[in-house]
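How a chain folds remains the central question behind the approach discussed here. For one protein, we set the task of working out the C-alpha cells from the amino acid sequence alone. The sequence in question and its C-alpha cells are set out directly beneath this paragraph.

_____
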Amino acid sequence: MSQRLLTVILILVIIGGFVGLKSTEQKSDGVSVEQQLSAILRTQKSIEDRLAAIETKQMGMASMIQGRMAGQVPTPPSRPMPPEEDRNQVYNIDVGHSAIKGDKDGKVTIVEFSDFQCPFSGRFHPVINQVLEAYPKGVKFIYKNFPLAFHPQAEPAARASLAAREQGKYWEMVELIFQNNQNLSEETYKRLAGELGLNVEKFMKDYLDPKIKEYIQQDMVIAQSANVRGTPTFYLNGKQTNARDMNAWKAEIDVILGN
C-alpha cells in the first residue's frame, strides 16, 4: 500500500470520527462543523498535492537511472580540470605605471593582482602592510588592478585609487577603499576623497579620465601574461606564492634575504 493511500485513509478516518462525535451544528467556541471539515479537506488536498509531486519526482529519477543503465541517457561529461600551476615559473611582471611601496631597492618584490570588491582581496591585503612594517628594508610592494567582471564596483574603485594618486594620495585611498569595500559607489569615492583632503572636483575629473582606464587595461594585459586566474594573486620575485598570513610570508622572505 502506497504512502499516499495510507495518508488519505488516515485523513478520512479522522474526518469520520470528527463527524460522529459532533452532532451539534456549532462548537462552543463558535466554529461550525462545516468550517472544521472545510479546513481538514484543504489540508488533505495540500498533502495529496505534495505526495503527487514526490511520486512524480521519484518516478522521474527512477526512469533516468534505468535509462542510464540501458545506455539511453548519457551521463554528463565531467568538467576538465585546469592545468597544475607551475610554482617554479618566474614571470617578468612589468611595473608599468604602478606605484611602489616600501624599499624601492629591496631584493624582495611582492606583486598583488587584486579586486577592490573581492572579499578575499579585502581579507588578505592588510597582511601586506604587516609585512612592510616587519621589513622596512629589503621588501617592496606593487599593487596591480584585476577587476573581475561580476564585481560592478571593482573597476570604478580602481579608477578612484588612481585618481587619488594624481594628488599624491594613492596608498591612502587604496586602504580606505578596502576598509569600505562593502559599500562602494561613486558617492563613496567622493566622500573618501574629501576625507583625504583632495580637490574633489579634480578628483572626479581624473576619475573619468580615459588615461586612468588605460592604466587599468594595461594591468589586465600584464595579469594575463602572468597567468592570473583570480583575486588576490600574489607573486614573490616573479613566482606565484600561496603565502597569505604573516608566518608564511616571513618564511619565504627570510630565505631570499638570507635571514
In short: DSSP finds nine helices and five strands in the chain. The chain has a mean pLDDT of 81.
